[in-house]
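Hey forum,

I'm writing up a methods section and want to include a predicted complex as supplementary material. The small molecule is pyridoxal-5'-phosphate. I've pasted the protein sequence and the SMILES. Can someone with a working setup run it? I'll credit the forum in the acknowledgements.
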Amino acid sequence: MEIASRHNLYVIEDVAEAPGALYKGRQLGGIGHIACFSFFSNKIITTGEGGMIALDDASLKDRIEELRDHGMSKEKRYKHTHLGFNYRMTNMQAAVGLAQLEQLPKILALREQQQRKYESCLNHPEYLSFHPRFAACQPVHWMMTILLKRENIRDALVDYLRTKGIDSRQMIYPVHFARPYQRRYRGGSFPNAERISLNCLHLPSATGLKTEEIEYISACVMAFLRTRV
Ligand SMILES: Cc1ncc(COP(=O)(O)O)c(C=O)c1O
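Reply by user p_vandermeer:
Happy to help. Structure tokens for the complex are below, copy them as they are.
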């Protein structure tokens, strides 16, 4: 924030994955000028699609609300003052989201238990590791992501889990693999991003996931890894 204020910049926080998380005791979403939350179907709170912007600036709020509503002036109906979008959330979606917001502390507590369960079942540092933790951060549990110690076996593990009725996902590719960025970053060396991206996978993560399911998934992961090391 200090750098931003020195250079007259806005800070937009991406809180898509982490409603309720803290940094140095402060809620994420309350640190920058604008915060964006995602309510896509795989997020901690979901309305199917869409999201929320949080901010503390009345004139920016008006501008964002106008942009969301076809660029129509808030003062004068049907007068379009910007080139806008149709990014309105329906009332039905909002009701679904608000009901979950009321439950957020309960949802986060449950998800934290799930994370601890996964971490105890998969506590085999010779085979895999979890997200590193930092003293200043109090994260929330969104997705169970594991980094495999042995390289080039991740896709085989995803296939193996599928045979056991478990849907897992490879991690997304690093940004420089995306076609729009390839020209600019071709030849660049980003070994950590590549190692993490190509050797990580996401295990099933959902508020409704049961303890026995976590035990079964973890047992299948370990059964596979023991054959590969
Ligand atoms: C960190 C982060 N930012 C942004 C997004 C995109 O959110 P949305 O799909 O609601 O646009 C995601 C989705 O997974 C995300 O994880």
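Some notes you might quote in the supplement: Residues 16 and 37 are 4 Å apart (CA to CA). The longest strand covers residues 34-38.
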